[in-house]
Amino acid sequence: MSTQSLSSGSSTQVSPLSAEKILVLDFGSQYAQLIARRVREQNVFCEIIRHDLSAEKIAEKSPSGIILSGGPSSVYEEGSPKCDPKIFRLGIPVLGICYGMQLACDSLGGRVANCKTREFGRASLRIDNTTGLLSGLPPQMDVWMSHGDQVNEVSSDFAPLAATPTCPYAAVQHKTLPVYGLQFHPEVTHTPLGATILHNFLYAVCGCVGQWHLADFAQQTIEQLRERIGDQRVICGLSGGVDSAVTAALLVKAIGSQVSCILVDNGLLRKDEQAAVISEFTNHFKADLRVIKAEDQFLSALKGISEPQEKRRRIGHLFIECFKEEAAKIKGAKYLAQGTLYPDVIESGAAKDGPAATIKLHHNVGGLPEELGFELVEPLRDLFKDEVRRLGLELGLPDQLVWRHPFPGPGLAVRCLGEVTKEKLEVLREADHIVVSEIKAAGLYRQTSQVFAVLLPVQSVGVMGDARTYENAVAIRSVNTDDFMTADWSHLPYELLARMSSRIINEVRGVNRVCYDISSKPPATIEWE
Ligand code: XMP
Asked: Taking residues 165-184, what's their average pLDDT?
């Protein structure tokens, strides 16, 4: 078991209970995290690591299997990312997906070339061998392809398992080594039977038995936290979001009254949010909660500022000041708990073995600087958001908290475009409340990922009664996404949009126009600033 001692290092990484582990070598794929989630969904722990880790280091981790992710490069290009070819001879099963397959075949005597017909999208797979990796599958099935290169020739050491009309080696198996390749993506939902293939790899090929269960994880984490923290005090920042709430819940279960939570009310929260957080918190925990009322300070720091990054900088800076001041009052606190998640760890390049790929720089206002002098406790570092939600339910947190849409650290300031004022925030807060209430009333809150209102810095002409108006415009934003790095705008029913629009215009003073944002990310971002 690769359990990292909780008494060493500067942050708590609770390793999985089980010895079973799959390593995903990331070659820059947009799907690396999705692969890891799909593996965990099958009750096998999975970690993403950098692609060029040596075979010796990989062997030290004793994985049950290795998955080579896809990636945007071509294996025959100079400088394209490669893995240590010795990994194919460790005796550990390897599954190469897309670029990963091309790399495996290239390393073991195949020929990869740019294909005549690039395949993007759905393809029909003919399966010639429904045993082992492809057992339990029908002879013909839909798969999702996304490649410009493909394996055109394999050495006689490989056996083809499946093909599409344009891809002769859509699935292959090495005859003597436990090495498999798939040109298509089993991890995406557009490959409807992809989970069966991953299940076959994990259970039939790698011999996993499925030991990764969140309930065990919760119990083990609580015990490890208790052991590490002993009789010391811990400070935990609460944001109202699920990550910090689950972190607090674990701590309260582990060390009870030794944890002090701090909530900074920056005046940029949504309607009634502060009260909801306090009541959810006090109803569920018996812990010290300190609410810092700092609305005036934040509003004056934002006065005259309309540049988004400058707003973020000022909010972040003041947040740290407020937090620091309150934390200094908590005598004897040694640890600071944060709800850092696995994607944050990967995205910030701080994963245990260095960067898988720096996908996005995180603009995490809630992140507190090291100079605060605390040792970090990050019990969610190994988890994805959906796992944190399930853990929250496991710990008995209420549904409305567990399923709350994410809310950015700088809050309504980045949804009130241009200069932020108390009056504008009031308008935005009311409009946002209507949007979110209507989504909930329509039963679509759980089916959407993030829904909110944006107050635009434009006035437009309208007519109300017999009078001409010249008032604010509000945009409604609703997106669906798995990872918040790419997102689609939600195709909300017209009737729902109509209800939101007429309620906002009728009920929120100062708004005479409502628009629906139909931009996807990329190229737009989810927030407007
Ligand atoms: P974008 O706008 O980059 O947002 O597509 C992606 C996700 O990140 C959230 N977001 C932030 N979260 N501080 C945060 O803590 C920020 O400054 C920030 N900006 C965006 C956004 O709400 C979405 O969930």
From this structure: 94
Q: Domain for residue 283, yes or no?
A: yes
Asked if residue 196 and residue 219 are part of one domain, the reply reads: no
Number of domains in the chain: 3
**Is 519 close to ligand 1, i.e. is its CB under 6 Å away?**
no
Containing domain of residue 393, as a range? Answer: 213-402
Is 187 an active-site residue? yes
330 Cα: distance to centroid of ligand 1 (angstroms): 30
Closest approach atom of ligand 1 to CA 525? 5
529 falls within a domain: no
Question: Is position 317 annotated as part of the catalytic site?
Answer: no
Rg (CA), the chain: 26
Whether residue 363 has its Cβ less than 6 Å from ligand 1: yes
Same domain membership, residue 190 and residue 287? no
We report the CATH number of the domain holding residue 133 as 3.40.50.880
User: Is the CB of residue 61 below 6 angstroms from any atom belonging to ligand 1?
Assistant: no
Determine what percent of the chain is predicted with pLDDT higher than 70.
91
Q: What is the pTM of this model?
A: 0.77
- Is residue 185 part of the annotated active site? The answer reads yes
For 259-313, the pLDDT digits (tens) are 999 999 999 999 998 888 888 888 877 788 999 999 999 999 999 999 999 999 9
Hey, what are 271's tokens? 């309607």
pLDDT tens digits, 303-328: 999 999 999 999 999 999 999 999 99
Based on the fold, state whether residues 169 and 273 are members of the same structural domain.
no
**What's CA 220's distance to the chain center, in Å?**
23
| Residue 15 placed within a domain | no
Distance 52 CA to ligand 1 centre (A): 30
Pair of tokens at residue 401 = 């908290």
Distances (CA, A) of 255 to 215, 221, 266, 399, 402: 18, 12, 28, 24, 22
Q: Residue 450: CB within 6 Å of ligand 1?
A: yes
Alpha-carbon distance 293 to 280, whole Å?
A: 18
